[in-house]
Design brief:
This protein has a domain of 154 residues: Uracil-DNA Glycosylase, subunit E (3-Layer(aba) Sandwich). It is an alpha/beta fold and 223 residues long. Helices cover 41% and strands 11% of the residues. The radius of gyration is 18 Å and the shape is globular. A six-stranded mixed sheet has the order 1-3-2-4-6-5, sandwiched between helices. The protein has ten helices and six strands, in the order H-H-H-E-E-H-H-E-H-E-H-H-E-E-H-H. The N terminus is likely disordered.
Length: 223
């Protein structure tokens, strides 16, 4: 039923459903739609039950920021603070991310911040491949809506999943990659930098590449 509805949507055909046909509204709302609005996407993510993480989450974490941003920052998954507040990159790691953005003349309000997974894995474990496969359509829809000039993948897990690569983060840095035709720069996760402050200098070099890539001025008028 879900696959049929998906195909009909792509063809622009509204599917007719008999009144006595038992179809889950949650199933229908979870069908990715390339033409979905932000509100529709938020509704789909909020009600999503596509993987077992919905059983342990407090709430979903869609993303936050400027919906016309040129820069999309992508992490791996919500942590405990994010799960409680419903916003990505809060707490100490979020504060450091804000400072990182400030170092290249940006604010949190000028970019869009999201994660590959929209639900917190138990005990902040790494996302499992099946979870990524079930959730990645939501990120693709966000990219379709945003049309960013650049994606900044923060952390090894985010970078490896976006790029479908197995190299270390050190090997993935200092190269311009692409994800569905959108350029990608890889850097360290703020949480890692809190544990390894000696790598902040390297992270700043990545941020300077972001700044250079986004010049001339951003779409939102800041430059």
């Amino acid at each position: 039923m879900i696959e049929k509805a998906r195909l009909l949507k792509k063809m622009g055909i509204e599917s007719w459903i008999l009144r006595d046909t038992p179809v889950s509204t949650t199933e229908l709302s979870a069908i990715p739609d390339s033409q979905a609005t932000w509100d529709e996407l938020a509704h789909c993510v909020k009600d999503c039950i596509k993987c077992p993480l919905h059983k342990t989450r407090t709430q979903t974490v869609l993303g936050v920021g400027n919906k016309h941003a040129d820069l999309l920052i992508v992490g791996e998954a919500p942590g405990a603070n994010e799960d409680q507040q419903g916003e990505p990159f809060v707490g100490p790691a979020g504060s450091l991310l804000n400072e990182m953005l400030k170092s290249i003349g940006l604010t949190r309000e000028q970019v869009f911040i999201a994660n590959i997974l929209k639900c917190r894995p138990p005990n902040n474990r790494d996302p499992q491949p099946d979870e990524v496969n079930q959730c990645i359509d939501y990120l693709l829809q966000q990219i379709s809506l945003l049309k960013p000039k650049l994606i900044l993948a923060v952390g090894r897990i985010s970078a490896q999943n976006l790029l479908n690569r197995t190299e270390t983060l050190a090997q993935l840095r200092n190269h311009l990659h692409h994800y569905h035709n959108t350029p990608v720069i890889v850097t360290y996760h703020p949480a890692y930098l809190l544990r390894s402050p000696g790598q902040k200098r390297q992270a700043y070099k990545d941020l300077l590449r972001v700044q250079e890539f986004l010049s001339p001025p951003l779409k939102n008028g800041v430059g």
